[in-house]
Amino acid sequence: MTIDDLINLLNQLSPTIRIIMSLIFLVIIAIVYKVFSRSISSTTKRLELDPHIENSLRLILRVVAILVGITILFTLYELPTEWFVGTSALVGAAIGFGSSQTINNIVAGFYVIINRPFKVKDYVKIGDVEGQVEEISINYTKLYTPSFNILEVPNVQVITNKILNCTHEGFIKYTFSLTFTHAVSNENIIKKCIEPAIEEFHGKYMDKQLRKPEYYFETTSNFGRSFKFRIFIPKGDAKTLYTLQPELSNMIINRWDIEKKT
């Protein structure tokens, strides 16, 4: 059967039949998408591929499924070239007033995937938000945040903000600061608060860390002295980070509360 024969056959279909065929084709596309999506997941896990590769393959599959669906619908309803010309002004207005953000997000999404400022399962800080990257879609980058929720950040905001990638060498290097008043000397803060807390913390959670936590003197002011702390958690284990970081802070602060009273 030639293309002309197929077009002639479509011309003979009633609107009801076309609607039914459209639904059938869309259901088939959805089923095929699910099958391939699961196949991608199982294959990447079996081959132990980087989660970013799985995310990229899923994105390509999603785009292909959308294009196939649009092509089938256009073929069934025989949308002519004149249709695009006649509605170009309307489409342009829609893009200008209602869809510009979506278009920008799509372009930004491809930029993020190609340029790779971060990958899936990296821990990042984007502007004033932070979290573990769970998915990079066409429109949004999904972060698993310290509040144990998923935050969808528009890709436009991703590329227009400063990005700090805290994931290096296969683990999260997370840094935070604590400030102490001048009521206790630096030596006592270090010897009686910081170092004992780190030793206790490391001994208690050794199996959940890759390295012993580190500390550095950061700065001093009229209000107190700040120390910077860094803990090392396996990549992709943000839930452990969100549990252990407050625990270490609490161990240090509890010793500080006792020390400043003596």
Describe, in plain words, how this protein is organized in 3D.
The chain is α+β, with helices and mostly antiparallel strands. The protein has a domain at 171-259: 2-Layer Sandwich (Alpha-Beta Plaits). The chain is built from eight helices and nine strands. The chain has helices at residues 3-11, 15-46, 51-76, 81-86, 88-115, 155-160, 186-204, 238-259, and strands at residues 123-126, 129-136, 140-144, 150-154, 163-165, 167-168, 171-180, 211-220, 225-234. Strands 4-3-2-1-5 form a five-stranded antiparallel β-sheet. Strand 1 (123-126) and strand 2 (129-136) form a beta hairpin.
Q: Topology, please?
A:
Elements: H1 3-11, H2 15-46, H3 51-76, H4 81-86, H5 88-115, E1 123-126, E2 129-136, E3 140-144, E4 150-154, H6 155-160, E5 163-165, E6 167-168, E7 171-180, H7 186-204, E8 211-220, E9 225-234, H8 238-259
Antiparallel strand pairs: 1-2, 1-5, 2-3, 3-4, 6-7, 7-9, 8-9
Helix pairs in contact: 2-3, 7-8
Mean pLDDT: 82
Order of helices and strands, N to C? HHHHHEEEEHEEEHEEH
Note poorly predicted spans.
81-98
The level-1 CATH class of one domain: Alpha Beta
Query: What fraction of residues sit in β-strands?
Result: 15-25%
Described by strand count, sense and barrel closure, the largest sheet is: 5 strands, antiparallel
The share of residues in helices is 55-70%
Question: Alpha-carbon distance between the termini?
Answer: 93 Å
| Shape summary | elongated
Task: Supply the CATH architecture of one domain.
Answer: 2-Layer Sandwich
Number of helices: 8
- State the strand order across the main sheet: 4-3-2-1-5
Rg, nearest Å: 27 Å
The fold-level CATH name of one domain is Alpha-Beta Plaits
Compute the number of strand runs. Answer: 9
The assigned structural class equals alpha+beta
